[in-house]
């Protein structure tokens, strides 16, 4: 079948967009997000500076595209681990998803830094990044949700001064779970990201040597925090 001019242009745009993002990722690794420049990317690709603005009107638009790509890639990885662990015990599924998140972060440290590291000066992520950002969190929440439905969730205790906040959180993102589970989910999410971030950014150097075992042990503790029975409570 003969390609139409419109189809050829569409393919060319996809290819050029991919090339721009790939060069931008390379520059992120070498220089950091704060130094990302559309003009520098265009120069490396042999494009006129004015041409690149037809693909990304500003540096922030390019950053947003890279952030969404990173969140989606991580989300796909977490969701694949979730799907691949169907039928396993809740604690095992939790560990599988956490391990997948860690594995992605170690394989993509600069992209992890882009989405969970220091804020980029002068950049504020728009609402369009939220759906992609939520994917990985909801993969973990799905483990908790399935355990609750199966009667295998030990609902964590909740102090009285958090009751109204827990009810608000639950209504916002886990309305089908007991309110006490919501702040526990937020707490372990923050702790998991921090744990992985410490490893990715070298904070465990000369502190933690057996990192696989340490990660498994910590993830088991996080599972208990949300009310799951860990895959290996003795790990």
UniProtKB/TrEMBL annotation:
Keyword Phosphoprotein part of the UniProt annotation: no
Name under which the protein is recorded: TetR family transcriptional regulator
A single MF term (Gene Ontology): transcription cis-regulatory region binding
Key words, A-Z: DNA-binding, Transcription, Transcription regulation
DNA-binding region: 37-56
Taxon lineage: Bacteria, Bacillati, Actinomycetota, Actinomycetes, Kitasatosporales
Cited InterPro entries: Homeodomain-like_sf (IPR009057), HTH-type_TetR-like_transc_reg (IPR050109), HTH_TetR (IPR001647), MT1864/Rv1816-like_C (IPR025996), Tet_transcr_reg_TetR-rel_C_sf (IPR036271)
PANTHER family per the UniProt record, alphabetical: HTH-TYPE TRANSCRIPTIONAL REGULATOR RUTR, HTH-TYPE TRANSCRIPTIONAL REGULATOR RV1816
Protein source organism: Streptomyces gancidicus BKS 13-15
Stored Pfam families: TetR_C_33, TetR_N
Location of the HTH tetR-type domain: 14-74
